[in-house]
Write a structure and sequence with these properties.
The chain is of the alpha+beta class and 171 residues long. It has helices spanning 15-25, 60-72, 156-165, and strands spanning 6-8, 30-31, 49-52, 79-86, 91-95, 102-107, 115-117, 120-122, 126-129, 135-138, 144-151.
């Protein structure tokens, strides 16, 4: 069993193109809703964590990129891409992601906020992340915009081995 939470990755992507795609779709961003957080519930509000969900993801560039990663890594099951934005100076409380076994995150802007799991903090531009482990983000003074490629049906350990085999890990 792999005890790591994060591996730096080395996909060749044009960050500016994805940031432009985010800007085009920003109007469809919504407050995050999940099993632990619901809008309009003061005890479970997550208004500072925004998402452009699968049903609103009309970017062919993002959809094609998620498909490309799925093909490159020969991943079975569901793989999807979406945008997230954590508002400036906000705290994404400790949580583990619902439904995804792991993800590949790409920080699209120049936000250097660290992600924390356990007592360790990590900074990255792109990374494979074990989303089943509890993690949090204390944001900086700029919004944090992420392209998240969610992997729903393949465990973190298996994806890490595949990515290592195909040369997509930095370490």
């Amino acid at each position: 069993m792999n005890l790591r939470f994060l591996y730096h990755t080395k996909f060749d992507i044009d960050y500016d193109i994805f940031l432009q795609e985010y800007e085009k779709l920003k109007f469809s961003e919504k407050e995050y809703e999940g099993p632990k957080w619901k809008p309009n519930d003061p005890n479970k509000s997550f208004d500072h964590w925004r998402v452009i969900r699968q049903k609103d993801m009309t970017s062919e560039i993002v959809l094609d990129f998620a498909d490309k990663i799925q093909r490159q890594l020969s991943l079975h099951g569901k793989v999807s891409g979406r945008f997230y934005r954590l508002l400036a100076n906000r705290y994404l409380t400790p949580h583990h992601d619902a439904g995804t076994k792991c993800c590949i995150n790409f920080i699209l802007n120049d936000n250097a906020a660290a992600i924390t799991s356990g007592n360790k903090s990590y900074t990255y531009k792109q990374a494979l992340i074990n989303t089943t482990k509890t993690h949090s983000v204390e944001n900086t003074d700029t919004d944090r915009i992420i392209l998240k490629i969610s992997i729903f049906d393949v465990d973190f350990d298996e994806v890490q081995l595949i990515m290592d085999h195909y040369g997509f890990l930095e370490e």
